[in-house]
Design brief:
- The protein has 496 residues and is α/β, with parallel strands linked by helices.
- It folds into 2 domains: 7-235 and 470-491, Rossmann fold (3-Layer(aba) Sandwich), CATH 3.40.50.300; 255-457, Class I glutamine amidotransferase (GATase) domain (Rossmann fold, 3-Layer(aba) Sandwich), CATH 3.40.50.880.
- It has 16 helices and 26 strands.
- The strands form 6 sheets. It has a 6-stranded parallel beta sheet, with helices on both faces. Strands 15-13-16-18-26-25 form a 6-stranded mixed beta sheet. Strands 19, 20, 21, 22, 23 and 24 form a 6-stranded mixed beta sheet that branches.
- α1 packs parallel to α2.
- The longest helix is centred in the first third of the chain and has 18 residues, at 112-129.
- It starts with 6 loop residues before the first strand and ends in a 5-residue tail after the last helix.
């Protein structure tokens, strides 16, 4: 295939849809016979994923790699910031944590060149193997106060020689000002990299915007490559958890009602995407004690700050509500940080997470967790103790969890290498460190089986892998039909 220039989707601001547009183009290029791969030099997210090598990247790049049909790799997201408070983040470099950094210190000029060399080297390795590399920017391209320390937007585009498509969100209003203003704040050599404008999240009759396209092109002297309408019937994994609390909490008859506890530092909420689509399940997110009482199953999700969330659950009454719901017959299951929360105690004598050294857990599992500075990241193959069928998932956690005192081990899972995972009291009380365990249909069947009497007419589980493939194709079709792809290919093959 012809060698294409790398392409970057940069934004006029945060949440304009860059990640989804990049995923769409990863699938479009794959459909057209190319071998694309995603790249984002620096990502800030609590949603992460373990690569086949057992290293950590942002979940958005894992999704984009899936859309591209290639294995995810740390070179696709060499720098990941996982916020632990409003001012600090854990810094993950090339898949491994290198410590916590205060935001002010992190964005100082000193020390940035070392990080710049790392992210540029990751891009260079990726560009040798894939055609084209689909880069994603972060936030706005015109944060002029951060210009000297920026690693992910135009400095990366300049390093890569990428053609930049500027994405503006018309749904939030002010798209003309945001596009024109973003361009005017760029320096001349930076503006030269902007080869097209893409208007995203359009609602209404697109013919009404056609005069606006001409005005924008005349104003900016850059072509508008497409106007992509807002969609509601395509399901791609979300990058952040802001919309989770809006999921309906009204219990439904004829379905198993599952509540995910809405932790303040909730991470890897994509663990529950399959359940959201399962016709037998009504899933909702809540930290309301009355709503938790409506649930047949309560899931405690992963957390970036287990002790802080445990303290909050005790303060707001959610801990007591979960214990009471279990006593009254609800199933309670914890994943990763949620598994740690379910134990007798969580200890942090070395202050890995913060100032709290110990808190009593919910007491539902006879285990104790000791926080450690070493992070475990790996993909795993395993089977339930009660079943021999091989399942897949991944681990991303800090801390070790063991049975207390003389309590015998009672693992939920046996890993392929013989190690054990989790704790299993009975079908109503269990915990695991394995993210993605709910992506396995047979495990969902195992979880729902005690509620078979509610499921007579609810249908069967579905193939999540096939569902995701269909969604990527639908997304690609949607974007392709509203973008001038011949113009895109002309941009990506024209020499400056």
């Amino acid at each position: 295939m012809e060698k294409l220039h790398p392409i970057m989707f940069a934004g006029t601001g945060s949440d304009v849809g860059k990640s989804i547009i990049a995923a769409a183009f990863c699938r479009i290029f794959r459909q057209d016979g190319y071998c694309p791969a995603p790249f984002k030099a620096q990502n800030m997210a609590l949603n992460s994923y373990a690569t086949p090598e057992g290293l950590e990247i942002g979940r958005a790049q894992a999704v984009q790699a899936e859309a591209a049909g290639v294995p995810c790799h740390t070179d696709m997201n060499p720098l990941l910031l996982k916020p632990s408070s409003d001012h600090t983040s854990q810094v993950v470099l090339n898949g491994r944590p290198i410590g916590n950094r205060d935001a002010y210190d992190y964005f100082r000029v000193e020390g940035r060149e070392e990080l710049r060399r790392e992210v540029c080297a990751a891009y260079d390795r990726l560009s040798v193997r894939y055609n084209p590399v689909v880069l994603e920017g972060a936030g706005s391209i015109s944060e002029i106060n951060l210009r000297d320390t920026d690693l992910v937007n135009l400095p990366m585009a300049l390093h890569a020689g990428a053609d930049v498509i500027l994405v503006g969100d018309i749904d939030r209003g002010g798209v003309f000002a945001s596009v024109y203003g973003s361009l005017m704040l760029l320096r001349p050599h930076e503006r030269e990299r902007i080869k097209g404008i893409l208007i995203n999240k359009f609602r209404g009759d697109i013919r009404l915007f056609e005069p606006g396209i001409k005005m924008l092109e005349d104003l900016c002297d850059i072509p508008v490559v497409g106007v992509v309408p807002y969609y509601r019937d395509i399901y791609i994994e979300e990058e952040d958890s802001l919309a989770l609390a809006t999921k309906s909490v009204q219990a439904e008859q004829g379905k198993v009602n599952i509540a995910v506890v809405l932790l303040r530092h909730l991470s890897n909420f994509t663990d529950f995407n399959v359940l959201e689509r399962d016709p037998r399940v009504h899933l909702f997110y809540t930290n309301n004690t009355d709503e938790l009482a409506k649930a047949d199953i309560i899931l405690l999700p992963g957390s970036k700050s287990t002790l802080a969330d445990l303290h909050e659950l005790r303060r707001n009454g959610v801990a007591q509500a979960v214990i009471r719901a279990h006593r009254e017959g609800a199933t309670v299951m914890g994943i990763c940080g949620g598994y740690q929360l379910m134990g007798q105690e969580v200890c942090d004598p070395d202050h890995v997470e913060g100032e709290i050294e110990r808190l009593p857990g919910l007491g539902l599992l006879p285990v104790s967790t000791h926080m450690t500075g070493e992070k475990v990241t790996r993909q795993v193959t395993f089977h339930l103790v009660e079943s021999g069928e091989l399942l897949e998932g991944y681990e991303i956690h800090m801390g070790t969890t063991v049975p207390i005192h003389n309590t015998p081990a009672s693992p939920l899972n046996i890993l392929e290498d013989g190690r054990t995972d989790g704790y299993f009291v009975d079908r109503t009380c269990m915990g695991t460190y394995i993210h993605g365990i709910l992506d396995n249909p047979s495990f969902i069947d195992f979880l729902l089986e005690p509620f078979a009497d509610k499921l007579a007419d609810a249908g069967k589980s579905f193939d999540y892998h096939q569902f995701k493939e269909e969604q990527y194709d639908k997304l690609a079709d949607h974007v392709r039909s509203h973008v001038d792809m011949p113009l895109i290919y002309k941009i990506l093959t024209t020499h400056d």
